[in-house]
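Suppose you are handed a protein chain with no further information: no name, no annotation, nothing but its sequence. What can you learn? This example shows the usual starting point.
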Amino acid sequence: SDLERFQSEVTMWVFEEEVNGRKLTEIINTDHENVKYLPGRILPSNVVAVPDIVTAAADADFLIFVLPHQFIKRACAPLQGKLKATAQGLSLVKGFAILPGGGIELISSLIEQEMKLPVSVLMGANLANEVADEKFCETTIGAKDAEVGGDLKLLFQTDNFRVTVVSDAQIVEICGALKNIVACAAGFCDGLKCGDNTKAATIRLGLKEMMKYGEIFYPGGSPATYFESCGVADLITTCYGGRNRKVSEAFVTRKTSIAELEVEMLNGQKLQGPETAAEVNYMLKAKGLEDQFPLFTTVHLICTGKLQPEQLLDALRDHPEHH
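A reasonable first move is to predict its three-dimensional structure. Written in structure tokens, the prediction is:
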């Protein structure tokens, strides 16, 4: 059968830490639960936690990257020159990598350069706890090579996790990064008690800015890609669920800094929205385009304390779409 093409054991590199006096890898391998990041969900016993990344990746045909984008370079450095020549990468990482000069690049490009392997992307309306509960969802795989896309679909698709493969990998990936900026705006709406009509306008105008950003910085993509799970669907679920929305709402109601809220509310997980907004703003500023992206720009200015959350409404009212 198709599945006999894959080995049953999946090694998972885990950053070793102590939880209640026990090693996290030992807890995962004994109790089959990641008590720190996915409490209450039993992991399949063929998923084996390994504290050493070189051991975990030895002999791998597929390497799947699911760590916060701030940690990729540091975590993956030991793997350089140690991978199979035919290995393929798949990134689920939402965000951009910052270049030394201050610009940004796709995470997939960073991984390709660091690890010397081709990288596809998987992005969708996939809030982790719901996927872990095996609730039905869809996802999008962006793979430039159709054969690799087919292998990845076979590897990931289940009855409750449906995969669409598209060749437009760059647009799939930027959707995953940019939607977190829009989610911050949605969270500000919630904190300001604006209501669902305002939030819908925020999501729509945010989607238009995502598409415009793609046109300018990653030309040649297909507008249809924004209507896959990685685009519209992930945008909606992140603006109604999701941690960027939650923390942004608290930022308005509790008047506490984003950095403090991240520490307090996220249990060691990282907030991607404000950082992505800053990275994108750098690019927009460099091209003199800030006023063409009022939602992205205003989110950045609110996150950095230069504007009040209430001023988001001015950006919506005066949006270029309405002139």
